[in-house]
């Protein structure tokens, strides 16, 4: 079955045959990749999502930062940071950190699990909604890194002021690994698998 595709790079419209996994199609004018099927998409997405979900617990239970401030030692988790920001009147920043650190990663992981399970069993239901879900996950993906940027700015400011000593906590490694696994899971999913059964039956 042929598909008409327009190249994003040069704008040329051309016909492309249906591709099997591991194959890709290039533009005949500029050699840009038009279509690329991902290898073991469902298995890799499920594996990365499960790893990220396991890492989600220590990333949010164990402290991200250890701070020594004039002899006073303190540890802070992501939730502690949200609570502190809220108490200090920084409501907007607290909401952003809460969404980016706690809520959005869970939404992405459960959404990817839903996409993998329904695609694995060749479900013919809610295909447009599942496609919309994948697009939503793809769009909000970069926003999950907002808290990393805020954390790096905070550490830089503290160290520049030479007032306190900030050390990474055990939760930081788990958090970084969780972010990497979540990004890898989202990148591993092939959304065309949602419509493959329809293409074969038509």
* Low-pLDDT sequence parts: 198-202
How many domains comprise the coordinates? Answer: 2
| CATH class membership of the largest domain | Mainly Alpha
So, CATH architecture of the largest domain?
Up-down Bundle
Which structural class fits the helix and strand makeup?
alpha+beta
Note the beta-strand portion.
15-25%
Write down the secondary-structure element order.
EEEEHEEHHHHEHH
CATH-derived topology of the largest domain: Butyryl-CoA Dehydrogenase, subunit A, domain 3
**Strand arrangement in the largest pleated sheet:** 6-5-7
Number of strands: 7
Overall helicity: 55-70%
User: Termini separation (Å)?
Assistant: 9 Å
Write down the overall geometry: elongated
User: What does the largest sheet look like?
Assistant: 3 strands, antiparallel
Q: Helix count, per DSSP? A: 7
Assembly type of the chains comes to single chain
Roughly how many Å is the radius of gyration? 22 Å
Q: What is the residue-mean pLDDT, rounded to a whole number?
A: 78
